[in-house]
């Protein structure tokens, strides 16, 4: 049990943590869909309630450097755990730098498994460092050759979401050149298939299994339009689908004489080289699960399969992994549960695992007294429905508040992020407006329950919808004069607003230089009248 907090007995009603996914605070309003949105509720909150800025990127959330943007995994991990752990990006980079990864049993088994066949790598093909890093792939290819393997095939998921929207050839071109260079002395390494990450393979939270099926058919069965190289494939697909950005490009297969060069066969080994779990779990299940029934796999090759990390510690998925994931312990979910606090978590499918699995330290099981509510997301391009399920999440939250059953409630509004990733400025302003409207309904229900809210975000996105010119800090332009859309997250801090109409002005927030997402667990504990757990970073609550 957490101890009583001597300075404050706790608010009479519940504490509600609201994550506005992808809502950052830009230095400059140019190109910010948030600045352009009409958002009377948020404007009123910023004007009338205590609010500070939180660090949500780089080392503040366990990324290797402060040049790394934040993302949902590291952001929700930091919020939920109240602590910062070195995250997958850092753990893998370190394991490669130290060579420890090659000594591990998993890598050795992969090498042994591929000895008589092919070693396949499937993963996100960029240096976004959110799900993967192409340098990790390069190091594994070099090591595979050093281990005496003869054949490597890469299944490249094009990004354009964590990196500029049409940057695929900046990765594919140099990498195909590198593969040609190392393909000597009987070693043969090539890209074998690929496609846009929002089109195949990398679905998450069971939102769209047909995406994974399409990926299976591409990587494993080698079905799809054939090209001589991945460079040629990207060029041809762009010409066939004008205006389509990398993440949405259709699948392709590399072929020779009409035959795919790298189908996945019995006796091969497969490494899924993303370190982040949400979009790695479904394809991993397709390779590993005995009674798999999400789609007809047609042919199931007997392979030695490994993930870069273990993606789910509860489900032990995958069984074999190259690097141990961060051992996230003592999360707020766990300790609030141990303190007898009933907790309610809600989001729509696209972010459901963020407020449950990431929040609880990458665990798929509930702690005692937790209720999880998923609102099914639409399966549509989100720029066409920027309101997404903000209204339905709000309905669910209001019902949960009215039930009087919960002392801690948490939700995630996906809009700023999911619509921000489309690069559509106008839709992103509507996304923020939808969140604002949702807040205008949710906050009175919190008042009625005698509660308070901590309103925050996990990282920026809609706050910068255009690439900014490095010198002028104004939106950069394409040759035709249009602005260069930016689909990725930002490096900006995020807000923390304390919505409190119950303490009579006793409560405020302290702006510390180092204040970040990992300070939220302790802050929520204090609002509940509880001391923070000894491992949690300090509370930001100011009690007068
Ligand atoms: O997976 C994605 O959609 C992006 O790579 C990162 O976005 P998220 O971290 O907000 O989920
Ligand atoms: Mn996010
Ligand atoms: Mn995102």
TrEMBL record:
Gene3D superfamilies: Alkaline Phosphatase, subunit A, BPG-independent phosphoglycerate mutase, domain B
Residue positions of the active site: 72
Residues covered by the BPG-independent PGAM N-terminal domain: 93-312
Cofactor(s) this protein cannot do without: Mn(2+)
Pfam families: iPGM_N (PF06415), Metalloenzyme (PF01676)
InterPro entries noted in UniProt: Alkaline_phosphatase_core_sf, BPG-indep_PGM_N, Metalloenzyme, PGAM_B_sf, Pgm_bpd_ind
Binding of substrate, residues: 131, 161-162, 197, 204, 276-279, 351
EC identifiers of the protein: 5.4.2.12
Reactions it catalyzes: (2R)-2-phosphoglycerate = (2R)-3-phosphoglycerate
Keyword line: Glycolysis, Isomerase, Manganese, Metal-binding
Binding site for Mn(2+) 2: 21, 72, 458-459
Presence of keyword RNA-binding: no
Residues the record lists as binding Mn(2+) 1: 417, 421, 489
Ranges where the Metalloenzyme domain occurs: 14-532
GO molecular function terms noted in the UniProt entry: manganese ion binding; phosphoglycerate mutase activity
A GO cellular component entry from the record: cytoplasm
SUPFAM superfamilies associated with the record: 2,3-Bisphosphoglycerate-independent phosphoglycerate mutase, substrate-binding domain (SSF64158), Alkaline phosphatase-like (SSF53649)
CDD domains: iPGM (cd16010)
GO biological process entries: glucose catabolic process; glycolytic process
Pathway: Carbohydrate degradation; glycolysis; pyruvate from D-glyceraldehyde 3-phosphate: step 3/5
Task performed by this protein: Catalyzes the interconversion of 2-phosphoglycerate and 3-phosphoglycerate.
Family: Belongs to the BPG-independent phosphoglycerate mutase family.
Protein name: 2,3-bisphosphoglycerate-independent phosphoglycerate mutase
Origin species: Azospira restricta
């Amino acid at each position: 049990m957490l101890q009583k907090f001597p300075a404050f007995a706790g608010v009479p009603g519940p504490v509600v943590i609201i994550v506005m996914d992808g809502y950052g605070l830009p230095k400059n309003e140019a190109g910010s869909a948030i600045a352009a949105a009409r958002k009377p509720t948020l404007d009123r909150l910023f004007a009338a309630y205590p609010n500070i800025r939180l660090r949500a990127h780089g080392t503040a959330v366990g990324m290797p450097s402060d040049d790394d943007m934040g993302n949902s995994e590291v952001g929700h991990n930091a919020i939920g755990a109240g602590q910062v752990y070195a995250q997958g990006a850092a753990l893998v980079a370190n394991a490669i730098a130290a060579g420890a990864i090659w000594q591990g049993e998993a890598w050795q088994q992969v090498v042994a498994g591929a000895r008589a066949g092919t070693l396949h790598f499937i993963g996100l093909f960029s240096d976004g460092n959110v799900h993967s890093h192409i340098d990790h792939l390069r190091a594994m290819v070099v090591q595979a050759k050093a281990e005496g393997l003869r054949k490597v095939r890469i299944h490249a998921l094009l990004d354009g979401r964590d990196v500029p929207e049409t940057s695929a050839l900046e990765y594919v071109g140099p990498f195909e050149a590198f593969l040609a260079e190392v393909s000597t002395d009987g070693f043969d390494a090539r890209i074998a298939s690929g496609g846009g990450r929002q089109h195949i393979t990398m679905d998450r939270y069971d939102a769209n299994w047909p995406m994974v099926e399409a990926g299976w058919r591409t990587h494993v069965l080698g079905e799809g339009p054939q090209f001589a190289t991945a460079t040629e494939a990207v060029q041809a697909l762009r010409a066939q689908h004008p205006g389509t950005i990398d993440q949405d490009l259709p699948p392709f297969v590399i072929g020779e004489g009409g035959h795919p060069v790298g189908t996945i066969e019995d006796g091969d080994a497969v490494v899924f080289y993303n370190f982040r779990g949400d979009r790695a779990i479904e394809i991993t299940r397709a390779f590993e699960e005995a009674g798999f029934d999400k789609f007809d796999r047609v042919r199931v090759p007997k392979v030695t399969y490994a993930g870069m990390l273990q993606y789910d510690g509860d489900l032990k998925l995958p069984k074999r992994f190259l690097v141990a994931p961060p051992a996230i312990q003592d999360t707020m979910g766990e300790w609030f549960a141990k303190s007898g606090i009933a907790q309610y978590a809600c989001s729509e499918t696209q972010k459901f695992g963020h407020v449950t699995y990431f929040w609880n330290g990458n665990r798929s099981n509930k702690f005692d007294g937790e209720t999880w509510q998923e609102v099914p997301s639409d399966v549509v391009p989100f720029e066409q429905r920027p309101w997404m399920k903000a209204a339905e999440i709000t309905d669910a939250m209001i019902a949960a508040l009215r039930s009087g059953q919960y002392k801690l409630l948490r939700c995630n509004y996906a809009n700023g992020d999911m619509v921000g990733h489309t690069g559509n400025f106008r839709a992103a302003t509507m996304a923020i407006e939808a969140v604002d409207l949702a807040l205008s309904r949710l906050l009175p229900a919190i008042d009625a329950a005698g509660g308070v809210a901590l309103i925050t975000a996990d990282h920026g996105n809609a706050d910068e919808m255009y690439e900014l010119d490095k010198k002028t800090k104004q939106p950069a332009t394409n040759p035709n004069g249009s602005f260069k859309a930016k689909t990725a997250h930002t490096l900006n801090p995020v807000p923390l607003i304390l919505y409190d109409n119950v303490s009579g002005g006793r409560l405020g927030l302290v702006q510390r230089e180092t204040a970040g997402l990992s300070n939220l667990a302790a802050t929520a504990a204090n609002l509940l009248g509880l001391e923070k757990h000894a491992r949690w970073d300090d509370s930001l609550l100011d009690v007068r």
